[in-house]
Amino acid sequence: MLLARLAWRNLRRSRRRTALMVAIVALGTWAIIVLWGMEDGFVSSMVRAQVSLDTGGLQLHRVGYLADPDLKLTFPADQLAALQARLKKISGIQAFSPRLLAEGLIQSAYGSTGVEIRGFDPELESRTTILSKSLIAGRFLTRPGQIVMGRPLAQQLNLRLGERAVLQVQGLTRPHSLGLRLVGLLSTGLPRLDRYTVFIHLQDARALTEVQGASELALAVQHPARLQARLQALLGPGIKVSTFMELNPLLSAVSKASRFEGWPTMFLLALLASFGVANTITATVLERTRELGIMLALGLRPGQLKRLIGLEALFTSGLGFLLGALLGYGLNAYLARVGFDLSAYSQAFPDLGMPHVLYSMVSVWHGIYAFIAVVLTALLAARLPARRAAQLEPTEAMRYV
User: Fold this and answer.
1) Judgement on whether residues 267 and 388 belong to the same structural domain of the protein
2) Where are the beta strands (DSSP E) in 43-134?
3) CA–CA separation, 8 and 18 (whole Å)
4) CB within 8 Å of 286: residues ≥ 6 apart
5) Is 320 part of any domain?
6) Which of 99, 147, 314, 371 is the most buried (most CB within 10 A)?
7) How far is Cα 387 from Cα 305, in angstroms, rounded to an integer?
8) Domain span including residue 109
9) Are strands 175-186 and 146-150 parallel, antiparallel or unpaired?
């Protein structure tokens, strides 16, 4: 207790030096918490956008379809009906939506372009994803004969609400075309959906492709990783159960890379903090050599002197950590609420599903990582100058100028 009071008094005596050490630790702590929060928020935002707007937590396909998305590898009508009946009885599945996918050409009076055509039951899709909540003009699909698309695609085709567009698709046996009326415009923040996909009623998709089943089943689930293995065992080898990460290899690679990228940054910040603390304490020991020698001569044991310097490092590191954590979590909480504009980057990397606004993530683990990286390394760095001080000879130290 006496050493703790003495260490605290010593810190108050050298306010400038103490402030420097506190600032070094606070900066390292703040940087780790903010950078890790932004990194986790970056991945979480992309995953959340992909799952809630596009893929769902899990998807079911016939084996071989993902490698070769041919209309002949879709679920037949009888298999689809049986599969839907089974899914209703499986716990953990909140909703599901059968989809029929095809590549085709869309034409307006002013232009044409290739698109992915996605047909679904509007009611089932609205239970599975929040795609309908991305509507910015008009209304969502309600019946056959209607089409919804992203505003960028509609602008490219110079197509307005209420006007007709024609879809052309190669069906199972011959080409088909169908005129549909544009009833709604979307803005999902996912360029692949906004620019290259059109959404139609499942009945219209079946008429265009001659397929009476579906290409896939999108599932809304709470814990995709836990349910995947159980669902795969229940459905058998003829059906492939895929998570959203498996369906988007680029997103999976970015997620894994972000985990590894954080550690070198944390190591570098910890190294800088430890160097700063070690150098400051070394300078302190050199400046106070005569004072330390007098303390040893008056009966302070070397081990006590070592602990005294260690306590000084602990107090400054603790203060720096608290200050850095307060500022770091404050900024993270602000960015988690307000977000950071990423619209320029989302347009540059459309396949990532990067949202227009990045929201940071607040986690207690970020503070734990920062404590381990900065505070513990700073305390370890303080051991060397503390050991040097404990080895001082009192008579020589008192003559030091």
Assistant:
1) yes
2) 58-62, 93-107, 112-120
3) 10
4) none
5) yes
6) 147
7) 9
8) 64-236
9) parallel
